[in-house]
Structure formats: structure tokens, C-alpha cells
Amino acid sequence: MPEIKACLFDLDGVIVDTAVYHYRAWKRLANELGFDFTEEENEKLKGISRVRSLELILSWGGVQKSEAEQEELAGRKNRWYVEMISRMKPEEVLPGAKEFLEAVKGAGLKTALGSASKNSGLILERTGLKPLFDAIVDGNTVTASKPDPQVFLKGAEALGVEPAACVVFEDALAGVEAAKAGGMKVVGIGSPRVLKEADLVVRGLYELRPEQLYDL
Ligand code: BG6
Ligand code: MG
User: Fold this and answer.
1) Nearest Cα residue to 9 out of 133, 195, 181
2) Cα(215) to centroid of ligand 1, in Å?
3) Taking the CB of residue 170, how many other CB atoms lie within 10 A of it?
4) Are strands 135-137 and 110-114 parallel, antiparallel or unpaired?
């Protein structure tokens, strides 16, 4: 088995907690369409693309919309979401995330972002984390969503590291599945009950040290 050479990070739920902003924007949209949207439903959208999220929300609300209408609705939700994340501050980075990124870079490992979000650039800029990533792969560059491994395979390729020498950090089941499908090691962030396939599960990056990555 090759030695670990790179770390690939999901963004939402691993580095920053943007789920609350997604929730507020989707809820506002659902309410305008005449139905409610719960936090439990929001949980099911973790790691899921914007377009697919809207399809699911409309089906839960029992509402049908044409493709053109769906495009307008997704755009409306995104404008509200962008309004909120435009005000994000570096303090909103999840506990230990910045320190862990610095530690893995200090240990000589490469880092890449592997996110489904098309807004990752804005979030990294607002939180000041951009310089800590050697490569950024996000919703603007991928054509297949998690659990497809494309986002992580592109990240490994951009870093010039073989997939088996990469560790992925993910909070969503679809993301853990994507990493495994790509032949990578995975550290799950969240509950071991949900992220069963992960090689190790922690509550947050604050619990981890780079040395632990060599024993996965
Ligand atoms: C993922 C989030 O990171 O990005 C999902 O977990 C979200 O909830 C997806 O739908 C797409 O994000 P965006 O910013 O492109 O709408
Ligand atoms: Mg996530």
C-alpha cells in the first residue's frame, strides 16, 4: 500500500458549516412555493448538488415545475444563499480545520478541495483559507456528482498523486461513497452509524493529527 501523500477535503460540513445557510435559503423557497422544509430534510441534501437538491425538495412538497422554472428557482435560492455567505467571517471556519490544514501541509502532504459547491471560491475567500489549498476542484469543474468519484479523482490528478495515496475528509454519506469508489482512504466527519464505510470517523478535524493518517 502506498504511503499517504495528499489530503482531499470536502468543504461544507468539514471546513465550514454552511448547512444552516443552505437550510434558510431552501426553506424560504419552499415557503414561497406554499410548503414547509424541515431540518431533517435538509440533512438529506448534504453533499447533493444544487439541481438535484431542488428536484428532491419539489418532490417532497408535491410540486411539479418545468425545467426553465426549476432553473429560475435554483437561481433564486442561490442569490439568497450567496447574500448570506458573502457576510461569512474567518471565525466561522469549523474548530480545528485551519490548524489541521496547516499541520498536514507542515507534514509535507499536498491538499486539495473536493466540493460539490459552485460557491466554494467565495467561501474560501471570505474565510481566508484559499492559500492552504494546492488545488481546487468544485461544482464548477465536475460533471458527475458524488457518489461518483470524479471530484476526488480530479483532485488527485491535479496534485499529481495516485488515488491510493490520498485521504478524503467527508461529512456526507455520498462523499464517503465517492472516495471509496475512487480507491481512496476516507476519514468521516460525523457519526460512525451514518458513515459506516469510512476508515475512521471523528467528530471534527480538531480531533485529528497528521500522524494518524499513516495508520488508516
Ligand atoms: C455541497 C452541499 O457541498 O454543495 C450541498 O453539501 C449543496 O448541500 C452543494 O447543495 C451545492 O452547493 P452550491 O453552493 O453550488 O449550491
Ligand atoms: Mg459536506
Assistant:
1) 133
2) 31
3) 30
4) parallel
Mean pLDDT of the chain: 96
Sole residue written with cell 435560492: 77
CATH number of residue 50's parent domain: 1.10.150.240
Domain boundary among 35, 64, 85: 85
Mutate to test the pocket of ligand 1, among 49, 52, 143, 151 (most ligand atoms within 8 A of CB): 49
1 occurs within a structural domain: no
Cell numbers of 209, please? 493529527
pLDDT digits (tens, 9 = 90+) for 164-216: 999 999 999 999 999 999 999 999 999 999 899 999 999 999 999 999 999 89
Residues 42 and 118 reside in one and the same domain? no
pTM of model > 0.90: yes
Q: Which residue has its alpha carbon closest to ligand 1 atom 2?
A: 47
Q: Of the residues 11, 20, 22, 83, which should be mutated to test ligand 1's pocket, given the most ligand atoms within 8 Å of the CB?
A: 22
Nearby residues for ligand 2 (ion, Cβ within 5 Å) = 10, 12-13, 47, 171-172
